[in-house]
């Protein structure tokens, strides 16, 4: 009887990579493009990126021409067909007939009304002597979107205003439900210099340029059931004595972090050079909202394992250790769309900068750069 010839052992396949080992590898790949490349190898690896409990990848940098950077790399790429602004995890497509939001990571979509379609409260409102929504809606003063937040599946809030009313974020607060035909606005509320807003513990808060923290009480329209503002109240009074010197510019951010509400005060020191007002050193101060005592409390740390990605359209607090970074770091952008009327830059390119709360030093830890003419760079969070 002939002796059986043993079959040649098949070499192991990369597709057979154990899930626990795939998870270990993926945790060493915090960049979005690296995880996308990993998932493209085979269906098994793609499943690992979808079903394993992984920390989110590092945020992307989004430019308004449709170019994106995946931290920490300096090579740009594009989401096909996208040329727009960003809001948190959403790409925003403003159109004449409305606003279209896409989450490029999940494929989810949201439709919002056009800013020209606003329901006034009361409906018979007439113009007043101070700037209100009626002034924004005058001919040739089409409103612009200064800030957009998807608070919940049933509530969207926005700052909308007009640059014709003055410099900065002079605007009013609008709200609607996704898919609604119009926004709602309190017609007689004065336009304010709003800096930022946040949805915190189920409530909407707005931060004004005078550092007043406002709470926006929301009710339902008795006829349509749509959300509407019933009252805007002050919960913390800002510091009226804080200097706003000619030699420095102040910017404010409002962020939820570890179940606390933080205000970040950013100071950009400026100097004159060649007849221009030129941006220089950045400093940051962080305050926690003590809602029980109605006051801002200075804090010297963001808390254990916390760091901030700071930008005017969208900011977020994240775990530092999941990216192999140290806590108490603030990564920030130039927010050029807001600043370009206030000051210029010595160089024609800029980058992401990092502020260390422990040392007060600013560094540029990431290699990507872009031209200052590329306004409105912002974070896109996977």
UniProtKB/TrEMBL annotation:
KIB1-4 beta-propeller domain sequence ranges: 68-341
UniProt cross-references to InterPro entries, sorted A to Z: F-box-like_dom_sf, KIB1-4_b-propeller
Pfam family, one: Beta-prop_KIB1-4
Gene3D superfamilies: 1.20.1280.50
Chain ranges passing through the membrane: none
Protein known as: KIB1-4 beta-propeller domain-containing protein
UniProt source species: Paspalum notatum var. saurae
Source lineage: Eukaryota, Viridiplantae, Streptophyta, Embryophyta, Tracheophyta
